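User: Good morning. I'm curious how benzoic acid would be positioned relative to this chain. Could you predict the structure with it bound?
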Amino acid sequence: MAVRLGDEAPDFTADTTEGPVSFHQWKGSGWAVLFSHPRDFTPVCTTELGAVAALKRDFEARNTKVIGLSVDPIADHHRWKDDIKDVTGHGLNFPLIADPEQRVARLYDMIHPNASDTATVRSVFVIGPDNKVKLTLTYPASTGRNFQELLRVIDSLQLTAKHAVATPADWKQGEDVIIVPAVSDEEAKKRFPAGFTAKKPYLRVTSARSLKAEV
Ligand code: BEZ
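Assistant: Good morning! Here's the predicted structure, ligand included:
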């Protein structure tokens, strides 16, 4: 069964490079990213894991824990760590799940048989403090992900969880945001004291400054 937006993220226990993990307990009350890669000792995956390791502080600044997964055994994960550090300059600094029996991969529908029977695709799940799935992404094995984009999305998810706003195309932290249509003009005047610009009756933008003051 596919895991969809708004679903509770399925709980599981698994062996990882940092010892056994019980997922919900490990995640705690913060945010989490669970992502799969197809195989250890493969070129794109090596670059991806180093890229995620390089962003450790950026994820921490967003109260977000990261955990990776592939269907390789734990011994392979440990042997592969040296290559990741060697190639990217960043050692593995987050847990990597060993899922040789594909238990977690199947729970999260990370195996897409028409792409590969034996390896996980590049899935990403962002999970909120309430353990609900806030974002899913699926990339093929041939395309490495842009993890800066993942940080950008987490910024949007965290902002829109707190305020009655949405973020436009290509939005970045600090840029103007959209007031959600469910908020009337009258209500928006009260909630966003910095004011707003109506580009269309349904497209009202306000500055990031408004959000600090939003009541
Ligand atoms: C890679 O990480 O380079 C890769 C993994 C599986 C299939 C193709 C490429």
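The mean pLDDT is 96. DSSP finds eight helices and eleven strands in the chain.
Let me know if you'd like a different ligand tried.
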